[in-house]
Every structure is written in C-alpha cells, then in structure tokens.
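Write out the 3D structure for:
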Amino acid sequence: MERDEPLATGRLQPGTVIAQARVWQTRPVTLDSPALDVMTDLTQVKAATAGPTTTLRQAEQIMIYQGVRMLFVVSDMPAIEGLITTTDLHGDRQMQLVQQRNVKYDELSVADVMAGLSMLDAIDYEDMKAANVSNVIATLRRHGKNHLLVVQRPAGKTPRRVRGVISRAQIERQLGAPVEVADVANSFADLGQMLS
C-alpha cells in the first residue's frame, strides 16, 4: 500500500452486531464449574477506580455509572491502596464518622471508610486455576465477604498484582441462585460493631 493511500471501505449489512467485551458474564455456571469462570479478569476488563479524596457521593455515582459495587482505591495508578464497596458507602462506619466529626455525609471521602490493604483478603491465582465455583463460595462464606481479590505472584519484572475480582453478585447472576454470606468479625473492633 502506498503512503497516504486511503483504505477500502464498505457499507454495513443488516445483521451486523457490536463486539462486546463482557460476553463471558452471561455464561451460566454450576457449583462444579471452574473457579476462573466467575472471576472478573483484570487483564480483560478495566478495573473501576476512585481516588482516596473522592467523596462518598462521587464514589457512588462512579459505581452506578460503571455498573459495579466495588472500586479500587488508587492515588498513583496502578498501585492499590484499598477498596470501597457499596456497603462501605451506606454502612455504620460512615454514620459514626458523621457523628464523631460533626460533619455532613457529603464531606466524607473514600479514604475515610475504605478497607485498606491490610484488611483485604486475596486468593492466589494458581489456587483459582485448580478450584471450582463451590470452593469460591466456601471462601466467601468463611470470610463473610461479598468480594475477594485474586492475586498473581511476581514473575520476572512483573510485581505481585491483583489479577482478578470475585464478586458474590456476579456468582449469583451466573448461578441463577442466591449465595448466602453471613458477616464475620475479623477483629475485636468488627465484633464490637456487629454486637452494637
């Protein structure tokens, strides 16, 4: 082809469709399906993020716009600082902060209620490859979480990284059935909050 030569074009025919990035999300699974079938693979789907100074109201709008219930908290991409979920936006913690600080809800930021790295549970990607959906559900139940991260070990110059996300809501959609997960206290502070 010569430089500056235009490319050939053609008219679209009836029946032409749009390529869609998330076709896999509609595939039904069973408890015996491979665990990777219910993992959102962050090498395939862009991670939904918010900065620590994002207000809770803005974080909620980002979640609605992107159709997610969890955001990664990042200041300097791709380094993760924590997570914020819809539960964090409307839970007891933010109401306590409003009362303690004598501020309005709109003055709270993601950093005020997010779960920091030390609070995040993660599954090793290699373990996910050998597991099934039933194993993933058992892990969600054991930790009392709606979301778990999947972490890939460092390889060569690639550092340890979050490779995927497990979401209870996603599993429920793919199973076509509810997945019950009870709250679990992970610290004395959590236990006190659950009992109050």
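Helices lie at 56-66, 86-89, 92-101, 110-113, 125-130, 133-143, 168-175, 188-195.
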